[in-house]
Amino acid sequence: MQAETNTDSNNIIDKSKIPLLRSLGLTTAILMVAGTIIGSGVFKKIAPMSVMLMNEHYILLAWIVAGIISMFGAFTMAGLATLTNESGGIYEYLRLSFGNLFSFLYGWASFLIIGSGGNAAVAYVFAQSVNSVVPLPNPLDKWKDISIGHFIYPFDSSGVKILAIIAIIFLTWINVLGAKKGGNLSNVITAAKIIGILTLIVAGILYPGTHHPQADSHITAINTNILSAFMAAMVSAFWAYDGWYCIGFMSGEIKNPKKNIPVSIISGVSIVIVLYVLINYAFIHVLSLPALAAMNENNIAAVEAARILSGNIGVVLLAVLIAASTFGSLNALIITYPRLYYRMAQEKFFAKKFANVHPRYRTPYISLIYSGIWTCIMVISGTFDILTDTVIIVEFLFFILLGWALIKMKRNKTITVKVIAYPLSPIILILFSIGLVVNTIMVEPIQSAAGLTFTFSGIPLYYFYKQKQNKQNNFIAV
């Protein structure tokens, strides 16, 4: 009996000690950065932005500024990526810079809302795009008006939610089978959706219809609310740019990560900025701003543009492009975030099983499975815009710390390599993040409160894990 117990114990220890494989090269890393970013937001977010800013110049400026801020974030992340070869990304950089509390809160917020909520939102739009071509049945429609606090409607759009859950389960299974399989799938889909977006850009810009620039209906340049509206519109744009930092979670599986991760982040973000500004210009060229502003959550701006450009054939092709795009983005997100939880478990600040690596496939399979389960719950709990707005405020709280971490590590000479645009990049990232967080709390108080509550609910859990570690250390010392 004693031998059997030891054997079982050794099996558990072996699974947590199995290393991940460094099987992903620079090209895959660049395509994963671009593929993670280009998901659902670029096709959809111009509609709520048009409501906030009924002015085409302000809308395009919001996309440009959001891209520039994202690039400053990419420069900051690139500098911090030289700290370590370990998986974990932002979690690991915060841990090395400030200790375990802030890094744990980031990891906890990622599991509860940033990663799982973001993945759920992308899966939701994937299912929406399929629904626009092949209407899905709603088997739970009779309960659609049931709500939790008039805020969450779990049975609304049940057909879309069921398909989103199926996609999450399928991609989780694929990624349990190996990081290289997931990476190859991401490469193919990312290349295909970039070609599709370029085709849509060319068709939209060359559209021969008469374009009528729209006068401001809500906001003018002299309106005192313009700054707040512009910041709120950028929350939507930032969702479309979201995910540029996720490749850092996979440092343990990237070849030469201290070199390749910075290059992949900056290259991927640069590609996306160009594509986003051009495609939104094309949308505005084809559709009027009032038409964009009038769209509800079940309409997708890109689909309506395709309808004008090519009729029903264009709608079908565009819906296929959006489905492929969001499916690819979801795949990249499902690959990356569980590596963060895996790293937390390695540091003994998460359930220890999350550190287990599959002995055959060499993937953090427990982390992948539980992340998938919670993401499915998030799909049921909220709609697209609620989830994305909640994610953004939490992310930018930690972007403040990210900028501060780079400054700290440069000043104490832990980071000695040259960082692009330093110290401007972390300072701009910090100042802008503070402004966006404050503005978002004022404009979206309910979503902000939910995001902050999720984040700070991790404080008691942090002290639980810390106390548990102290007890283990005292036991070993004795």
Briefly summarize what is shown.
By secondary structure, the protein is an all-alpha fold.
* Helix percent band: over 70%
* General form: globular
- What is the CATH superfamily label? Amino acid/polyamine transporter I
Number of helices: 18
Number of E strands: 0
**Which CATH top level class fits?**
Mainly Alpha
| Computed Rg | 22 Å
What's the number of domains?
1
The CATH architecture term is Up-down Bundle
Structural class of the secondary structure composition?
mainly alpha
Helices and strands, in N-to-C order? HHHHHHHHHHHHHHHHHH
The fraction of residues in strands falls at under 5%
> What does the largest sheet look like?
none
In terms of per-residue confidence, which ranges show pLDDT below 50 for 5 or more consecutive residues? 1-14, 211-224
What would the keywords be for this entry?
mainly alpha; 73% helix; 0% strand; disordered N terminus
Describe this structure in words.
This protein has 478 residues and is mostly helical. Helix content is 73%, strand content 0%. It is built from 18 helices and no strands. α7 (100-133) packs antiparallel against α13. The longest helix has 46 residues, at 301-346. The protein starts with a helix and ends with a helix. 51% of the residues are buried. Residues 1-14 and 211-224 have low confidence and may be disordered.
